[in-house]
Automatic annotation (TrEMBL):
It is an enzyme of class 2 (transferase). The keyword Transferase applies. Its EC number is 2.1.1.35. The active site is at 321, 321 (nucleophile), 355 (proton acceptor). It comes from the Bacteria. The keyword S-adenosyl-L-methionine applies. This is tRNA/tmRNA (uracil-C(5))-methyltransferase.
Length: 366
């Protein structure tokens, strides 16, 4: 089978090979030599999802090899996941197995953890959950000091909270985040902290100018970068992420950031004065003195209008989860901007995926 266990001893070699491959992709753009930020070789992933495979009266965690998608691969040890998840997996399996009301028609278990140790477990069933299930699950939640969510078709029961609390350490400071079940969060916490630190260093101190951030998620970058600027204008389309961002701004006493629930394309259109939006009725866009744009788009990269729009600004900090679409966007952006820094962040070790960071300054601007 092509599904193989993780081998930490091979990580340095695999990372070097991946760095060479990604660097070769950008060779035609003559970017600076990349700074490489490795991941821990194991226990790096703060999220994990497992199917539950039942055999008689027992069950086990399972994953499926794409080469043999019908054959479950039993998972008893999963060093890819955070230590918090790894240490919880077997005791939780045993506790659920001791009560039929908790194991009956249990289909999947999702784990969400943080660097600070907070953990949320979602139990997904092929049956409706009742008061008996809730009482039993409450006991398990208390035993392990975790949050539990029960899900079935058209049903969601939250025992405690439906989010975890992260305390992200960056440059000697901790930033607090609510990270909601089902919402996007960076999966590799330690590499995420390195990405935030890198972005902060590129932004510098700008007390008289403003930052525009597209695709801001739950404020992962917005909050640490807010202290570098007079104000931040941020946009995000996900309702869950917008809710989390507002809560995270409050927890971190960030008062100079405005969050808009709209797509980057819509905000670009508004800033270009092509369209007006009711959501912007109380926002004076003309009052912003934007000189830096931060973007962290989805794998599709920037759309054509957004790419052309951000090219107007003196400085661009671009975080990308897809080197191919980043290359496409840089082919255009490097016509107006010079790439001053290039970084590779290994968010997903042992895979071909690589997170990239590029800092661009408009040509002719010192």
């Amino acid at each position: 089978m092509s599904f193989r266990p993780l081998d930490p001893t091979k990580y340095p070699q695999l990372l070097n090979e991946k760095v060479s491959t990604v660097s070769a992709l950008f060779a035609d753009l003559q970017l600076p030599k990349p700074e490489v930020y490795p991941s821990p070789a194991e226990h790096y992933r703060l999220r994990a999802e497992f199917r539950i495979w039942h055999e008689g009266d027992s069950f086990f965690y399972a994953m499926f090899d794409p080469a043999e998608p019908r054959v479950p691969v039993r998972i008893d040890h999963f060093p890819t996941a955070s230590r918090t998840i790894c240490e919880l997996m077997e005791p939780l399996r045993q506790a659920l197995g001791e009560q039929l009301v908790l194991s009956k028609r249990l289909y999947q278990i999702d784990f969400l953890s943080t660097l600070s140790g907070d953990t949320l477990v979602t139990l997904i069933y092929h049956r409706r959950l009742d008061d008996e299930w809730q009482a039993a699950a409450q006991t398990v939640a208390a035993k392990f000091n975790i949050q539990i969510i029960g899900r079935s078709k058209k049903q969601k029961l939250v025992l405690g909270r439906d989010y975890v609390l992260e305390q992200l350490p960056v440059d000697g400071q901790h930033y607090a985040y609510h990270q909601y079940e089902g919402g996007f969060t960076q999966p590799n916490g330690e590499v995420n902290a390195k990405m935030v630190s890198w972005a902060k260093a590129r932004c510098g101190q700008n007390p008289h100018t403003d930052l525009l951030e597209l695709y801001c998620g739950n404020g992962n970058f917005t909050i640490p970068l807010a202290s570098h600027f007079r104000r931040v204008l941020a946009t995000e389309i996900s309702k869950t992420s917008v809710k989390a961002a507002h809560e995270n701004f409050a927890m971190n006493a960030v008062h100079n950031a405005v969050m808009l629930r709209m797509s980057s394309e819509e905000l670009t259109s508004a800033l270009n004065k092509e369209r007006s939006f009711r959501r912007l009725a109380d926002v004076d866009l003309d009052s912003y003195a934007i000189d830096t744009v931060f973007v962290d788009p989805p794998r599709a990269g920037l759309d054509e209008a957004s790419r052309a729009f951000i090219a107007r600004f003196p400085r661009i900090v671009y975080i990308s989860c897809n080197p191919e679409t980043l290359h496409r966007d840089l082919e255009i952006l490097t016509k107006s901007h010079a790439a001053k820094d290039f970084a590779l962040f290994d968010q997903f070790p042992y895979t071909h995926h690589m997170e990239c960071g590029v800092f661009l300054i408009k040509k002719g601007v010192i």
